Amino acid sequence: MSYFDQLAHQYIDGEWRAGSGSWDIVDFNPYDGEKLASITVATGKEIDEAYRAAERAQPGWAGTNPYTRRLVFERALRIIDEREAELSAAITAECGGTALKAAFELHLAREFLREAIHLALGAEGRILPSPDDTRENRLYRVPVGVVGVISPFNFPFLLSVKSVAPALALGNAVVLKPHQNTPVCGGGLVAHVFEEAGLPPGVLNVVVTDIAEIGDALIEHPVPKVISFTGSDKVGRHVATVAASHFKRTILELGGNSALIVLDDADVDYAVDAAVFSRFIHQGQVCMAANRVLVDRSLEREFTEKFTARVRALNVGDPGDPATHIGPLINSGQAEAITTLVEQAVADGATALVRGATDGNLVGPSVLTGVPADSAILRQEIFGPVALIIPFDGEDEALRLANDTPYGLSGAVHTGSVERGVRFAKRVETGMIHVNDATVHDEPIVPFGGEKHSGVGRLNGESMLEAFTTTKWISIQHGRSTFPF
After folding, report:
1. pLDDT tens for residues 162-207?
2. Any catalytic annotation for residue 185?
3. Best CA proximity match to 280, nearest among 289, 271, 288
4. Fewest CB within 10 angstroms: 349, 426, 429, 438, which?
5. Looking at 287, 305, 451, 466, which residue is catalytic?
């Protein structure tokens, strides 16, 4: 039995079961259109049951010794190590991810599980002084209770684990809703790994559904105290609005329009390597991807020639073939949207140095230059294999172009002087930026998140404590207080 046969269900209170909706979410392989699974959607009834199960299970889980809690994550790590080939095959089948992408995703998922092991012991308290000599002030870090997690389709296993694991490690229970295009890798596989690792029933629940069925029930429900959402800024804005109206905290990891900037003293060959990876990893379906490659005019010709030569050599096709660099986009809607975006940019006056063909969900890479300053493509997230090369004259113009976007997630600057790069990086309006590296980068202990329309809050490391715990003040009067009446 494949993972898709085994895990194509709701997972509520430790039971694998069908939803009670009147229609199914059909899970397709984006490369060949093969039907992988059919899952009857969860309704508001299952949403309530999942949250109530989490609410019942959470106090017992929070009361478990954190040294015992962390054993679950140690076992989960071993399971992933033992089944890496099977998990990689599932990512390729459901996401259209190449072997490189699957390895990258599973590597980072393991890193976040390792950090969760340490995080389980990280909720430290404090004792603060008081102006009253006989009073003692204690601050406790306590779990928020139940967390709702909504994960995306591009790195579904990783980006579910990234919120689920720390929330669980800190004593919370979780209800996870994966994206409807990746219900198994983003939901069922996560539940399966933790179930086998010994997580008690009800502590993690997975609901596979769609907003067309449940509306805002996942966000409005009274049980969850925090909603962790990864996805588009449009949906993130709605999540934040609804959650705020119900006094819930949100962690929003949203879209990007990152720039990779090549200054006049950069190593061109290395910058080309970084730019090709930053733009085309997982078909460009990465929030941190380098949509825009800004190149000093003195290097424009050399960089462009080398970059376009590398892009033309990328293999497009079956993600199951180890030689493939670019597999399919997640669905036909995405493929059509990217194709239309390129067509519109060319109609606006851009020049296509490389023009990728579209065949079903396969969209070949495109490289555009001469993009008019008022073209919409410059300021939006391009979730596909399209690179924009934009020349600049000097650092000030590079900075203006880099910041001319409503987003501020990631970025990179290439230069022969590290300190010059740091000075430039400090002026870029982005939550993360890397000197002499790719724009696509994540580490488990470094705060991850964006500015402007790219999100609110941070994940990773100590930021997880802020995201998934709250502080509780308990004062103790060892003497006697005096009261005015």
Report:
1. 999 999 999 999 999 999 999 999 999 999 999 999 999 999 999 9
2. no
3. 289
4. 426
5. 287
Question: What phi and psi, each to the nearest 5 degrees, are found at residue 180?
Answer: -65, -20
Q: Give dist(CA 71, CA 68) in Å, integer.
A: 5
The gap between the terminal CA atoms of the chain, to the nearest Å, is: 73
Indicate if 95 belongs to the active site: no
The rounded distance, in Å, linking the Cα atoms of 271 and 263 is: 10
Residue 152, both tokens:
């995306």
Residue whose C-alpha is closest to residue 218's, from 201, 242, 236: 242
Could you give the angle at which helices 418-427 and 394-403 cross, rounded to 10 degrees? Answer: 40
Helix axes 99-119, 156-169, angle to 10 degrees: 0
* Residue type (1 letter), 272: V
- Tell me the chain's radius of gyration from C-alpha atoms: 24
Number of neighbouring beta carbons within 10 Å of residue 260: 29
Residues in the chain: 485
Identified catalytic residue from 195, 253, 381, 395: 253
Question: Tokens for 401?
Answer: 């172009």
> What is the distance between the alpha carbons of residues 17 and 342, in angstroms, rounded to a whole number?
43
| Token pair of 255 as six digits | 């879209």
Going by DSSP bridges, is the β-strand pair 135-143/126-128 parallel, antiparallel, or unpaired? antiparallel
- Give, in order, the Cα–Cα distances in Å from 11 to each of 18, 49, 133, 176, 481: 9, 11, 53, 10, 52
Please check whether residue 8 is in contact with residue 184, taking contact to mean a CB–CB distance below 8 angstroms.
yes
DSSP of 185-238: IIIIHHHHHHHHTTPPTTSEEE----HHHHTTHHHH-SS-SEEEEES-HHHHHH
Structure tokens at 280: 């085309």
pLDDT tens digits for 32-70? 999 999 999 999 999 999 999 999 999 999 999 999 999
The contacts of residue 319 (CB under 8 Å, 6+ apart) are: 31, 92, 96, 97, 98, 99, 101, 327, 328
In whole angstroms, what is the distance from residue 227 CA to residue 214 CA?
16
The CA distance from 226 to 436, in Å, is 36
Cβ-proximal residues to 113 (8 Å cutoff; 6+ apart), any chain: 73, 76, 77, 80, 161, 165
DSSP H or E run through 35: strand 35-40
Give the Cα separation of 206 and 186 in Å (integer).
9
Q: What is the pLDDT of residues 76-126, one digit of tens each?
A: 999 999 999 999 999 999 999 999 999 999 999 999 999 999 999 999 999
User: Contacts from 304-311 at CB under 8 Å and sequence distance 24+?
Assistant: 304/353, 304/369, 304/389, 306/268, 306/269, 306/272, 307/272, 307/275, 307/276, 307/367, 307/387, 307/389, 308/353, 308/354, 308/367, 310/272, 310/276, 311/276, 311/280, 311/354, 311/365, 311/367, 311/387
Distance, CA of 397 to CA of 217 (rounded, Å): 46
Joined tokens for residue 23: 């229609």
Biggest distance spanned by C-alpha atoms of the chain: 83
Tokens 């054993």 sit at which residue?
71
- Helix 189-196 crosses helix 156-169 at what angle (to 10 degrees)? 40
β-partners of residue 174 are 147, 204
